[in-house]
Amino acid sequence: MNSDVVLVNLDDATKKQSGLDLWPYDLYAATFEKINAGEPTSLGIDVIFTITLDTTGWQRLLMAIENSYVAVNPYLVEFGLNDIPLSVYDHPVILDELGYDDLPVVQPNKVKHIVNIPYKPKPDFMESGSLGLVNIEADADGILRRIPVVAEMNGMLVPHFFLRILCQHKGYDLSNIDVVSDRLLVLQNFPMDSISTKNLEIPLDGNGNMIINYLSEDKIQNLRKSGKFVSISAIDIINSPKPPNLRGRTVIFGDHTPAVKDFSNTPLDSTVPNSLIYGILISNILENSFIQTPSSGIPMVLVVLLFIVMVLLATTLDVFRFGILSTGILIGYIVINFIVFVYFGWLIPVFPILIPVGCATGFMLIYLVYQSQVTMGVLEGSLQSYLSPHLMDKIKNDPDMLKLGGERKRITVLFSDIAGFTSFTDKADPAEVQAVLEEYFSEMTSIVFANKGIVDKYMGDGIMAFFENPPDGVTSAQAAIKSAVAMQKKAGELDEKYKDQNRFPFSVYVGIATGYAKVGNIGPPEKVDYTVIGSVVNKASRLDSAGTAGDILLDEDTYFFVKDDYEIEDFGSHELKGFEKLVQIFRLKKSIGDK
Predict the structure, then answer these.
(1) Is 593 exposed, middle or buried (0-12, 13-18, 19+ CB in 10 A)?
(2) Residues 6+ apart with CB under 8 A from 458
(3) CA–CA distance, 510 with 543 (Å, rounded to integer)
(4) Contacts of residue 6, Cβ cutoff 8 Å, sequence gap at least 6
(5) Is the dihedral of CA 396, 398, 401, 402 positive or negative?
(6) Which uninterrupted H or E stretch holds 574?
(7) Fewest 10 Å CB contacts: which of 26, 140, 346, 559?
(8) Rounded to whole angstroms, how far apart are CA atoms 78 and 116?
């Protein structure tokens, strides 16, 4: 807040002490007389004095304004299209009537065009002092952010109330004002102090408005306490035995009482008196402290650039990284925007940029998620041809299973072979052999999957499957036996079917062994299998050939876990290839309770 600015307030305290809610002209005159005696450089009177029935004190008020020689009175205008001239009404020369001399010419479309003057002071006032328009137009949300610093009236440039006060304060000739464009107004040779001048550039918003660089109410109160900003009640001016010292200062007089409603909503505080806002605007110019806005094309450029960045990220990153990085970029834009505003005074659009870019980013993110789900679905569908549903579920819940290596686990391994299959392949057509194998593998694999087993591999006419245990128990042997029983039952059904087709008698051998093995993704990086390695695998592969077709043979460890649920007979000790000692074998007869 520039120290040249002084506010004199017609506030609640003034009206309460005077005992009058509606001030008579005499009290206005007494206040202005005291202010004039303080020798200010200019006096802005933010009150429109119109014709009233009560004329008491009118001449005194008129004389007080005439004697000041520096008073600025307000008037209110209407803006409209540039092709509509200002209505003349009852006075032939509007500009002369408003007291403007030697105003600069302004080209149309650079600033707002005036089409009417609905509220103006009495003619005597217009002759007694200078004039300035006091139009205030809030944004769509009801917040006042900008002021039409100048306007165009019948091809001539006219200043706003606060700018006219400033020009009076500095003794500045209005004819030196140059509207370069709708984004720049220049006060040529503006006196910055008693000896130096400069071309002072005032940034505009593209519509001829100056954006207000507000001070918060707390900041203003602190300035008042420190004496750097003077704000005086009108009653204190009247009651003071001597006039205040106002040399070298500009005074703005305004009515701050709620009844007048001469307030505006601001971005920093709920409501602020308009006369204070005029003081802030004058300070913005004197302190060369402006808020600037980019040209209308900059937001579109930013949208395009951010959109290109998001597209590049979306095409090179996975969903998670794109989501994190795109969110960081949008948040970073807000942070950078805030820093640029605070330290450089640039007001770059936020929501006009973030809304389209955010929507586009959200669409890309949704699309990437959809694509990843489709890819996962295709991958899952493909893997289901290689992996059991149980293994697929385990991988989904624990992706670390896909890492190379394995761990030592107790498992149960099942081997199944077709009896007499070699003889059948020698006699049958290859297509018939393939048909039998496909049906056999399909039926037997479904049984293994139903018992949460994993088919490790197919070897000719053989199937190798294994069953793992949950963390809280040993169920692999039970699951393997259930699978074996179901497989022998299904083999019997296939035998009946093939007899009707005059094919060979169909039966299978099944061997089951339980023990420790290494389980996991095993093999070189070029070819990895989720498989098992250990002597238990070899034992199961040897068991299925030790009996006769239709048998389910078990090793001793498997027998230990299922003996209470099935009728099992001792099949004796046998010498198995690859084992130095005889292996005790058991044969399943039937489940306890079966007939």
Answers:
(1) exposed
(2) 441, 464
(3) 8
(4) 40, 230, 231, 232, 246, 249, 250, 251, 252
(5) positive
(6) strand 566-574
(7) 140
(8) 5
Read off the tokens for 455.
């088919």
Nearest to 36 by CA among 239, 244, 234: 244
- Asked if 25 and 61 touch (Cβ cutoff 8 Å), the reply is yes
> What is the rounded distance in angstroms from the CA atom of residue 81 to the CA atom of residue 56?
41
pLDDT at site 360:
92
The pLDDT of residue 144 is above 60: yes
Residue 474 structure tokens: 């040993």
Which structure tokens are listed for 467?
Answer: 């069953």
User: Which run of H or of E encompasses 414?
Assistant: strand 405-418
User: What is the C-alpha to C-alpha distance for residues 84 and 196, in angstroms, rounded to an integer?
Assistant: 41
Least confident span in 245-249, 428-432, 568-572:
428-432
Q: Is the dihedral of CA 43, 48, 51, 53 positive or negative?
A: negative
- pLDDT of 76 reads 82
Q: Give the per-residue pLDDT at 592.
A: 47
Q: E strands, 36-101, where?
A: 42-46, 71-80
Write down the pLDDT at residue 90: 43
Between the CA of residue 561 and those of 32, 328, 411, 585, what are the distances in Å? 110, 57, 12, 14
Residues 437 and 451: their CA atoms lie apart, in Å, by 21
